[in-house]
């Protein structure tokens, strides 16, 4: 059996990093399709396998002619591309199997797919494969059973050229103990945190190392610190030991909840393991809105102080923010701007609230008859899919004010300088490569000569070079990210 795994194209989004990747040599996509690479390892060993990541290359007719079966996985933001892929597969007459978050949430919309293998593939894919072998495959395979990810295989990295990606990824845990109204993680993966063991994590790090990869690795967990004790007693000490023996080939990043700031021992261990960046869902500085959405871990805190505490340990905080809650006051836009600037969060993803299918928010909007349409999956595209309490025009206007302010060159470069002033990272896990040199040289032309904010670029350039030379690569990388964000938000 010849299996073609297809990862549809992402639209131009905040996290696509499309415009930042344009500065580098060879890098064409931010991260590889970790789910599909794991699915590839779950397929029978005697199958021939190929993978087409449409964020790197086009899907060709000869790819489909080669295949006996096509497996597609996608996020909601890839819906349009996934639909086009399905059309092409139908025209080619090849059997289509689809799974992943998009199809798990919206499977009823894809009757053109031959087989929907939904929820977690470790549970549902074996049943499909067994029926396929017996010549009686069904249309829909779903299960409420959660996978034992201690049995998950190592992703089949040999199917891709790792050097075309900006970062590789590893999933240590699934699920989140919290229950935020707007979040679909509990719908997809449940509240009970499931984790891999120490040997699994090390085996996955070794597998990436053996590909020749030397660079960033993203721990693709929805809340990396959901089991703090296991991290401190087992996983992170093992990662530290592994990294020391190999002279720190990877710089790490992940996602965590704000209660990370309460545990100094955990933060120190993360820094020792060469975790560089941590994305934190801050959402809003308004306590009533935090109560509304069930973000209880962020309530009754000095959130700016919490962010600075994490940063002071040597971690760069990347923040997620939302406007559009029913409880949002008219002042929320100015408050969000002020918070982001004061906290020194350079990478601030501010989005409009959308009701994702499967969430408590979606069910509430249905009950209140406020739901308008399905979400696009991109909360930065200036749209929302339900009737908001605040006037829609006021909401969109305020949202535009936020992104136009925080990503204008003056405010953005000010945040970089403020962050770098007190940033004390542990060295290691960050290696100079040809692609980074190319990005640096291009930044001098694009950001230093062609962009309107070039004065701020050169101020950061020479200020960092003279006062914090060890942080110069970080400063240039952040400047390049800003170019991408301005393009995405169309900030002139």
Walk me through what this model shows.
The chain has 19 helices and 14 strands. The protein has 3 domains: 140 residues, 3-Layer(aba) Sandwich (Rossmann fold); 255 residues, TIM Barrel, CATH 3.20.20.70; 55 residues. α10 links the parallel β11 and β12. It is globular and about 65 Å long. The relative contact order is 0.10. The model has no long low-confidence stretch (mean pLDDT 96). The protein has a 6-stranded parallel β-sheet with strand order 2-1-3-4-5-6, sandwiched between helices. It has 492 residues and is an alpha/beta fold.
Number of domains: 3
Cα separation of the termini? 51 Å
CATH topology of the largest domain, which one? TIM Barrel
The low-confidence runs, each spanning 5 or more residues with pLDDT under 50, are none
Q: What class, by secondary structure content?
A: alpha/beta
Report on the biggest sheet. Answer: 6 strands, parallel
What is the strand tally? Answer: 14
Strand percentage lies at 5-15%
- Average pLDDT for all residues: 96
């Amino acid at each position: 059996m010849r299996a073609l795994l297809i990862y549809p194209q992402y639209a131009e989004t905040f996290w696509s990093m499309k415009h930042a990747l344009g500065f580098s040599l060879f890098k064409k996509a931010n991260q590889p399709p970790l789910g599909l690479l794991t699915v590839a390892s779950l397929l029978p060993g005697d199958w021939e396998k190929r993978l087409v990541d449409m964020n790197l290359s086009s899907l060709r007719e000869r790819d489909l002619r080669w295949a006996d079966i096509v497996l597609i996985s996608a996020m909601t933001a890839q819906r349009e591309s996934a639909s086009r892929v399905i059309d092409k597969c139908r025209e080619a007459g090849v059997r289509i199997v689809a799974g992943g978050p998009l199809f798990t949430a919206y499977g009823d919309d894809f009757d053109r797919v031959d087989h929907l293998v939904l929820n977690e593939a470790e549970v549902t894919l074996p049943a499909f494969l067994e029926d396929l072998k017996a010549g009686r495959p069904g249309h829909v395979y779903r299960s409420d059973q959660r996978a034992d990810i201690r049995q998950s295989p190592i992703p089949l990295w040999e199917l891709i050229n790792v050097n075309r990606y900006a970062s590789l990824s590893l999933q240590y845990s699934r699920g989140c103990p919290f229950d935020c109204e707007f979040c679909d993680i509990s719908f997809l993966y449940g509240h009970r945190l499931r984790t891999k063991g120490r040997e699994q994590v090390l085996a996955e790090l070794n597998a990436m190392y053996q590909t020749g990869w030397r660079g960033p690795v993203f721990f693709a967990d929805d809340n990396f610190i959901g089991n703090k004790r296991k991290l401190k007693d087992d996983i992170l000490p093992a990662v530290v030991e592994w990294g020391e023996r190999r002279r720190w080939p990877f710089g790490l990043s992940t996602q965590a909840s704000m209660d990370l700031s309460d545990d100094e021992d955990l933060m120190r261990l993360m820094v020792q393991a060469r975790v560089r960046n941590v994305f934190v869902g801050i959402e809003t500085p308004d306590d009533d809105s935090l109560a509304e959405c069930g973000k209880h871990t962020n309530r009754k805190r000095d959130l700016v102080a919490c962010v600075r505490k994490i940063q002071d340990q040597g971690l760069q905080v990347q923040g997620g923010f939302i406007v559009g809650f029913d409880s949002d006051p008219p002042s929320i836009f100015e408050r969000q701007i002020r918070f982001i600037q004061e906290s020194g969060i350079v990478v601030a993803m501010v989005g409009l609230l959308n009701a994702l299918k499967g969430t408590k928010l979606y069910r509430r909007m249905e009950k209140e008859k406020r739901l308008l349409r399905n979400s696009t999956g991109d909360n930065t595209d200036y749209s929302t899919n339900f009737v908001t309490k605040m006037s829609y025009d006021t909401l969109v206007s305020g949202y535009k004010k936020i992104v136009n302010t925080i990503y204008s060159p003056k405010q953005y470069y000010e945040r970089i300088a403020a962050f770098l002033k007190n940033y004390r990272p542990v060295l290691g896990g960050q290696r100079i490569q040809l692609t980074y040199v190319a990005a640096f040289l291009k930044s001098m032309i694009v950001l230093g000569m062609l962009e309107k904010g070039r004065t701020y670029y050169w101020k950061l350039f020479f200020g960092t070079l003279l006062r914090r030379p060890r942080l110069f690569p970080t400063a240039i990388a952040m400047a390049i990210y800003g170019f991408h964000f301005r393009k995405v938000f169309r900030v002139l």
